[in-house]
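Question: does this match?
>
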Amino acid sequence: MIRQLVLSLLSGLLLTACYYDNEEDLFQYVDQGSADCAVMTAEFTADIVPILTAYCNRCHRDGRTDGNVNLEGYDRVSPYANDGSLLGAAKHEAGYFAMPPSGGTIPACDLQKLTVWIEAGALNN
């Protein structure tokens, strides 16, 4: 009985003795985005459509409008850009449903492109 107890304790120590958390090891394969991303201008067709295609249109498109939101085409995107919900959801801000809902985030450079485009008036260019 004592032998089993000692073996159990030693096994527990061995299993937990090598456990450690540090940011470098835990997140070494996660793309944290480029820190030197300097976006000065953004255009709907060249910059915003690829972001929406990559992160939004799987669910928010013709034939599948999750949450009654369709983000295909300028006419469907502009109301969400103008009322703040597109950027609020993309940045996971309080008061908006975080998108994408998988828990992932849109890379910082892409968020900066969305911000620049919206701040410039969310033009159809």
Notes: The beta strands are 60-61, 64-65.
